[in-house]
């Protein structure tokens, strides 16, 4: 699908193309056909595009019918009728797309190497989707929040830093308000596991 999308000469004519390019930081090189080597920026671009098209709704859920519509409309791919149910079930089983896990490249976190070493986790562990949240992984993300300045020296949430997520990932006003209320209730982060409080605010959770 990515290969076909990237080859589509009309890709840059999409009404939201420039906006998604700006939000993702993607270049023409990022959007060239190389599905086995999708860059962080190309993933961000297509994440943005899928949200604009309604293939990912406001709650972060994939919408199979919209994905099929996009494939047919823009890429000339019509999913065989006998495969629709199977593919829809598979897509639905993916659950919600987290704003964090869908776009975050762990290696681009400030102090990445230092946090990896101090936490005792591995790149493989923090790159898995979904991430298995064990003690070491929590410690990695606690360290990352400290390096980014979203946690101060006393373990207090720096709200403005975390609300940058809203600006970077184009959250709606309602989503931003919900995020603000959630983060204001987090309290002090002391133990590594306390980071889960932030994680639950940043990542849409399955009900």
UniProtKB/TrEMBL annotation:
A GO molecular function held by the record: odorant binding
Cited InterPro entries: PBP/GOBP (IPR006170), PBP_GOBP_sf (IPR036728)
Alphabetized CDD domains for the sequence: PBP_GOBP
Superkingdom classification of source: Eukaryota
Stated name of the protein: Uncharacterized protein
Organism: Diabrotica balteata (Banded cucumber beetle)
């Amino acid at each position: 699908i990515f290969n076909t999308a990237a080859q589509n000469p009309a890709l840059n004519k999409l009404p939201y193309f420039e906006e998604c390019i700006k939000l993702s930081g993607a270049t023409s090189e990022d959007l060239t056909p190389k599905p086995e080597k999708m860059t962080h920026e190309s993933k961000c671009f297509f994440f943005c595009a899928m949200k604009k098209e309604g293939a990912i709704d406001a709650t972060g859920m994939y919408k199979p019918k919209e994905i099929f519509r996009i494939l047919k409309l823009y890429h000339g791919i019509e999913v065989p009728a006998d495969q629709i149910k199977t593919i829809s079930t598979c897509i639905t089983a993916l659950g919600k797309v987290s704003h964090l896990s869908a776009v975050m490249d762990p290696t681009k976190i400030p102090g990445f190497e230092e946090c990896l070493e101090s936490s005792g986790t591995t790149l493989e562990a923090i790159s898995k989707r979904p991430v298995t949240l064990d003690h070491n992984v929590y410690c990695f993300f606690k360290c990352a929040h400290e390096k980014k300045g979203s946690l101060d020296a006393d373990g207090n949430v720096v709200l403005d830093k975390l609300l940058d997520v809203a600006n970077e990932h184009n959250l709606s006003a309602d989503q931003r308000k919900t995020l603000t209320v959630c983060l204001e209730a987090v309290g002090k982060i002391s133990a590594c596991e306390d980071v889960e409080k932030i994680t639950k605010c940043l990542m849409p959770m399955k009900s």
